Amino acid sequence: MPFAKHPLVQFFTSLKLTVVLLALSIILVFAATLNQVHLGVWGVQEKWFRSFFVWHDFNGFLVPVFPGGFTIGGLLLVNLVVSHVYRFKMSWKKSGITITHAGLILLLVGELVTALYQEDFQMRMDEGETKRYSESPRIVELAITDITGPDWDQVVVIPPAHIKAPGSVVQHPELPFTVKAHYYYPNSALQMKTQAPNMPESGADKDIGARLAVAPVPLTYKDNERNLPSALIELSGPSGSLGKWLLSPWLIDTQRFDYEGRTYEMALRFKREYKDFSLTLLDFTHDRYPGTDIPKNFSSHLRLVNHVTGEDREVLVYMNNPLRYQGLTFFQQGFDNNDTTTILQVVRNPGWMLPYIACLMLTLGLFVQFGIGLYAFTRKRKARAATTANA
Amino acid sequence: MTRHALSLRLLPVLALGLLAVAGCRKAPIETYRIPHEGPRTAAANDMMSRPVPGAEGAPDVRWQLPTGWEALPDQTGMRKGSFVVRDAGHHEATIAVTVFPGDVGGDLANINRWLGQIQQPPVTEADLPRLVTELDLPAGRFKRVDLIGAGPEPTNSAHDHRMRTLGAWHAQDGRTWFFKMTGDSSLVAAQARAFDAFLASVSFVGDAVPGAPAALNAAVQPAPEPASTPAPAYTPAAPVAASGELTWTAPAGWQAKDLGPMRKASYTVGGEADFSVIAFPGEAGGDLANINRWRGQVQLPPLDAAQLAAETESVAGQGGLTFTVVDFAGGGTRITGAILPHAGQSYFFKLTGPDAIVAAAKPEFLAFLKSVTAR
Question: What 3-state class would DSSP assign to A147?
Answer without folding.
Answer: coil
